[in-house]
Amino acid sequence: METDLNDYTVIKEGEAEILMHKKNQVFFNKAQVNNRDMSIAVLREFISKRKQEYEGKPSKRTRSASKVNGKDSSDASKEDTPSENGLSNGEHKVASEDGPPSSASKDPAKTTEGFAPREPKPPKVLEALSASGLRALRYAREIEGIGQVVALDNDLASVEACQRNIKFSGSVAISKVESHHTDARVHMITHPKEFDVVDLDPYGSPSIFLDSAIQSVTDGGLLMCTATDMAVLCGGNGEVCYSKYGSYPLRGKYCHEMALRILLASIESHANRYKRYIVPVLSVQMDFYVRVFVRVYTSASAMKNTPLKLSYVYQCIGCDSFHLQPVGRSLPKNNSVRYLPAIGPVVQQECSHCGKKYNMGGPIWSAPMHDPEWVTSILSSVNSMKDRYPAYDKISAVLTTVSEELLDVPLYLSLHNLCATLKCISPSAAMFRSAVINANYRISGTHVNPLGMKTDAPMEIIWDIMRCWVKNHPIKAQSPEHPGSIILSKEPSHQVDFSRHIGSLSKAQAKKIARFLPNPEKHWGPKLRAGRQITSKHVSLIGHGAVNGHLNQHHEELKEEDEDGAEQEDNLKDKVDLKRQKTTTEDISSTS
């Protein structure tokens, strides 16, 4: 594969370097460095956890040996006579299977049964949509203990670029990364339970890949999935979201977290079709997309818990109060569990606060989106290797905020939205948090929105807090039909204490750790799909300078093509004239 380096730009990210063509032939987005860094951090933790689980799980040989131990030791206890070498018959028998008894005592690496602890095979990773191959190359070069990385793409130019970058990256990449030109869906569905890690990062919605991806992950494997169609997931096109993900979104202030929960519910739905279920370890909304990391397991009995993890959402169209309606419930019966439909509805036809109607959305994933042990461990690992993450500041800030979220509280409130409903000035976040905590409820922030607050306090308490706040900070009279006026017309049913509570600031806030960072540069967001011609309408994506540069370059290329065409036309005319002259000369000579 011949390569003219003058046509390419060398891009370095982490420990990987790739060649990118100056034309928009293969998709690459610099902003996705946050996504790639977060994926590497989670993948490192997965390899560590997988090794711990593997060492703690006995092998078939060890289990059979333990059965022999139990049987022989019981016989020895009945006879109450030790063997000649002072060991019980069971211990002696196990030792004799693997070697002499002395070898087991001399080798401390072996277990008490006489077997050395097993080492898991390096995890096999599939990057279903590789494009330039940068993500696959970073996995191979930066993650210790990783196995083969298979990079797929259905675009021939992308596969050629990936293979070019593999060769450009050296021997480590050549030995670990392989690139194939194929449809990722076909490849995954024809390789069931083969990959320990499957990474889906499509341009747009991942919905068409979920069914085959679920089938290709091993038991206990990791599925990493990105969705960039946020307009659909956040309620811009509810019918499209329902057709792709099987859930109807609501346009509330919590729409970005709802997008995460819709994606998780969709993955769970696909998994259930194959008697599988998911366990989320980390779910984040960053920049212009959502990214979830889930482990996939197979169990027909555990799959029955799925309705307990899903809920519908009722949202008032007047005051934005929301309530969750579980899909199912469980009822213990003797030594078993009976699964039943949930009892509902949880709300009346009209909102009890403002008298308006409800919109209903969902179902969404209402179980925890994160595993706190994973989040803490990933954050600790990232902090210990900050030099190895180009986007360390961003992913550290996100993980810090995630670690402080209330796990069992789906969705969140927006303080400014509450105040907008009442047309009042906003209390400080610390004051509002203090009022909730003083009422004996929990409250935390959310990584999705700096103004968002997750709390287990019911909406009655929230509106009582706001009523008491408005009493101390009067507002102008509003129309009596306005939702805010209806809410304020009721007297508070609870006493509210606004005195400052020590827990009103999170640990990160108390230590003044940055949690929400600005974009590092302008136009930090989604980029143009590969192969698209850049025009003036793409200013919002890449900026005026980039558009003007591309347009000027395009005009120069067209000018060169016109000049080349004119030159070719002149050459053609000269050839025609010469041929005519030659023909005329031959005719004259023949007549003479």
Automatic annotation (TrEMBL):
* Regions of compositional bias (Acidic residues) in chain numbering: 559-569
Provide this UniProt record's keywords sorted from A to Z.
Methyltransferase, RNA-binding, S-adenosyl-L-methionine, Transferase, tRNA processing, tRNA-binding
**Enzyme Commission number:** 2.1.1.216
Q: Which domain of life is it from?
A: Eukaryota
- Pfam families xrefs: TRM
Region feature (Disordered) = 50-124, 553-592
The record lists the catalysed reaction(s) as: guanosine(26) in tRNA + 2 S-adenosyl-L-methionine = N(2)-dimethylguanosine(26) in tRNA + 2 S-adenosyl-L-homocysteine + 2 H(+)
Q: Which spans of this chain does the record mark as coiled coil?
A: none
Q: Which InterPro entries match?
A: SAM-dependent_MTases_sf, Trm1, tRNA_met_Trm1_C
Record-linked PROSITE patterns: SAM_MT_TRM1
Uppermost EC category:
transferase
Report biased composition (Basic and acidic residues) as residue ranges. 69-81, 570-585
Q: Which family does it belong to?
A: Belongs to the class I-like SAM-binding methyltransferase superfamily. Trm1 family.
Q: Which NCBIfam families match?
A: TRM1
Q: What is this protein called?
A: tRNA (guanine(26)-N(2))-dimethyltransferase
